[in-house]
Specification:
- The chain contains 7 helices and 12 strands.
- It starts with a strand and ends with a strand.
- It has 2 domains: about 90 residues, Gcn5-related N-acetyltransferase (GNAT) (Aminopeptidase), CATH 3.40.630.30; about 160 residues, 3-Layer(aba) Sandwich (Aminopeptidase).
- The chain has about 270 residues and is of the alpha+beta class.
Length: about 270
């Protein structure tokens, strides 16, 4: 039996083949090349018994696990009954849950005139330069349980975020938020064209408040001002996520009338 890997754009497929017959496959998509993705289909050939199917998926899983390990890939999986087969596959091949995220959305077409009590002004990455921006990004990211900052410098972390953003990186949309002349937070905007001319979708690659300015209600106001910006840019819908244990950010989503969608589990190989 031979395991082949096919890639078409962002989509990937692992295929088990024996004597030119396809015995099984695992299909998925990479949100960020060799960094983050998801599996959306697992199947084996009809007529195989349970042991045969398990052996085939184990062979595919061995290759997939090694790929995830070598590239430190994160695999996202919604916590749904319909995704049980994917969850079982990931756990049986040895991937473990690294962290859990809560996903939220908001219909921006229904966004009323916001009640912004703290009006931020912004400086772009293009204006302030990488050295200044990466310093504040590193500070604003401290304490985030979904990030691994312990062994990274501010420069290394910044470069990893640029790689993660990929084609969506735009130095004019990565912003330092200032209030009364003082830098207090980070707002990194990402806008994506929806297929079939359905408009635009917006999210924040990252949003954060510097540690010394937290617990003042600034996070909720910065998020709200960000939503307003997305609407002005023509976005029809907003998606955001945070760690399931991040009570502060979950409270911000609730205060700004974002709707909970689902919990996602993020798996990695170790």
């Amino acid at each position: 039996m031979e395991i082949q890997k096919k890639i078409e754009g962002a989509k990937f497929e692992y295929i088990a083949i024996d004597k030119e017959q396809v015995l099984g496959n695992v299909k998925g998509i990479m949100f960020v090349p060799d960094k983050a993705g998801a599996i959306f289909r697992i199947s084996t050939k009809e007529g195989l018994n349970e042991l045969e199917s398990k052996t085939i998926l184990q062979a595919i899983g061995k290759e997939f696990y090694q790929y995830c390990l070598n590239n430190q890939v994160e695999i996202f999986c919604p916590k749904r009954t319909s995704r049980e087969a994917v969850i079982n596959f990931l756990e049986e091949i040895g991937l473990t849950i690294e962290y859990k995220k809560a996903l939220y959305e908001k219909d921006l077409t229904q966004l009323p005139e916001p009640q912004i009590t703290k009006l931020f002004t912004f400086k772009t990455l293009a204006e302030v330069g990488e050295e200044a921006f990466q310093k504040y990004l590193f500070q604003a990211s401290q304490g985030d349980p979904t990030l691994r900052l312990e062994q990274l410098t501010a420069s290394e972390y910044f470069q990893s975020e640029v790689r993660d953003a990929g084609d969506y990186f735009d130095a004019k949309k990565w912003l330092l938020a200032t209030l009364e002349g003082e830098i207090v937070g980070i707002l990194m905007i990402r806008i994506e064209e929806l297929p079939n001319n359905k408009g635009k979708e917006g999210t924040f690659h990252y949003i954060g408040i510097l540690p010394e300015h937290r617990a003042k209600g600034l996070g909720q106001q910065l998020h709200l001002q960000g939503l307003t910006h997305l609407k002005k840019e023509g976005c029809k819908i907003y998606f955001g996520s945070t760690g399931t244990e991040n009570k502060g950010m979950k409270a911000i989503f609730t205060k700004n009338n974002c709707q909970f969608v689902e919990e996602q589990w993020i798996y990695t190989a170790k």
